Please model this.
Amino acid sequence: PADERLADAAKRMVERGVGAVLVLDGEKLDGILTERDLMKAVAAGYSEDAKVADWMTRHPETIEADDSTEHAAALMIHGGFRHLPVLDEGRVAGIVSIRDLMRVALEDSSPRGV
Model:
């Protein structure tokens, strides 16, 4: 949630080994909190009571679940970000990372066995 303490959200991200989390308002996408957002907060000397809402990226780009991986990659490359929320008919379905897309690309280009 957007009202969670920034430090608590960062700790949970580290525990889970993720570089971004989606910020929800109920079931609605409210924003995304990324490693880059956290670095900005640290560089600015964020206060102990800072909330996720103070540092998250609001209104992030999104893709639909049936969009192509090429479309996702193009959005990320042109937008300069590494995480992209995925919606399914307007509902939050998950998040895709540039690493996810690289796995797909490598699988598609890997030599096949005989």
